[in-house]
Amino acid sequence: MKIKAIYPGTFDPLTNGHADLVQRAARMFDTVIVGVAANPSKQPLFSLTERVTLAQQAFAGISNVSVIGFSGLLAKFAEDQSAQVLIRGVRAVADFEYEFQLASMNRQLNPALDSIFMTPSEKNTFISSTLVKEVCRHGGNVSSFVPAHVELALKTKLNL
User: I need a surface site. Which of 55, 75, 96, 148 has the fewest CB within 10 A?
Assistant: First the structure.
């Protein structure tokens, strides 16, 4: 049986923590879809098209990873993609509580979808897209937190 997994997120911006999880998931599943959520309620810095493009560039060398932008319910997107597994990154206990609620809701909406939780490598546990944007906005060095092309896109977007 071929197992298709979705790793959803806003990815605003994509971080090394995200990339780490995708690379590891690509070794575990036949297909990994990076589902870039439109998520306008988060007021993303980058447009959906920009975030999809940055993710595509990051994973261009991994043959079983694709990147697809989506809006609406994740459970419906997973169903449309015929995915059986939902990958969620968990950095801390606080993340787990929220992610556990999401997993339960997604299971109610799409009973064929199982959620798995992955922890980032230790060097990435403190990285979040929000912190990366804040550090970059104030002129801090984010080169060890995001891929080089994402750092350039951030600096360009923030006029730095």
Answer: 148
Ligand-binding annotation for 66, yes or no, is: no
Cα separation, 111 vs 125, whole angstroms: 30
State the catalytic residue, choosing from 4, 24, 91, 107.
91
CATH number reported for the structural domain that contains residue 108 in this entry? 3.40.50.620
Domain containing 103 equals: 4-158
User: In the structure encoding, which two tokens stand for residue 74, read together?
Assistant: 């994740």
What pTM did the predictor assign? 0.93
Domain count across the chain: 1
Q: Is 123 annotated as a binding residue?
A: no
121 is catalytic: no
Reply yes or no on whether 18 is catalytic.
yes
Give per-residue pLDDT as tens, 19-73.
Answer: 999 999 999 999 999 999 998 888 999 999 999 999 999 999 999 999 999 999 9
